[in-house]
Backbone:
């Protein structure tokens, strides 16, 4: 999908306040409400944007955040391990890496016991050789990047 400046402006408006009405966005961007609605629906259909209720994890009971480095042996198991980890509801971020370990996993758990249960489940997956966990004591920022950065807006 090719996106233009108007698409990015609509996304930027929604990032600032996801409840902003199409009418307000249209007025701000000097286009019709129909144009905003059509663009939004296209972005939604193409999977560029999804609609979710983003909660403050601490306020709803997730008091233990952690980064888990996963070492996979043999390397041919990496995709299968990643697919299994991706299905786990505690996982907020999962990526393959080029560093010392194979998979980087960020998780949100209720408490340390919940985290330990999660780690045990990961360790039991065929191909997981080792894990290393770092607990985040305090999260200072939890957000997605501003889409304006794609255009070099800073």
Residues:
């Amino acid at each position: 999908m090719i996106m233009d400046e108007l698409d990015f402006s609509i996304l930027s408006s929604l990032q600032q306040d996801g409840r902003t009405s199409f009418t307000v966005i249209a007025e701000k961007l000097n286009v019709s409400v129909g144009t905003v609605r059509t663009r939004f629906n296209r972005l939604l259909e193409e999977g560029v944007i999804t609609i979710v209720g983003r909660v403050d994890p601490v306020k709803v009971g997730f008091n233990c955040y952690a980064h888990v480095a996963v070492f996979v042996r043999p390397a041919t198991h990496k995709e299968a391990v990643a697919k299994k980890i991706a299905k786990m509801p505690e996982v907020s971020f999962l990526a393959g890496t080029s560093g010392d370990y194979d998979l980087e996993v960020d998780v949100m758990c209720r408490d340390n016991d919940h985290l330990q249960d999660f780690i045990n489940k990961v360790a039991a997956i065929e191909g997981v050789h080792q894990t290393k966990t770092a607990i985040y004591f305090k999260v200072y920022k939890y957000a997605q990047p501003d889409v304006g950065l794609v255009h070099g807006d800073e």
Remarks:
- Residues 58-136 form a domain with the Alpha-Beta Plaits fold (CATH 3.30.70.920).
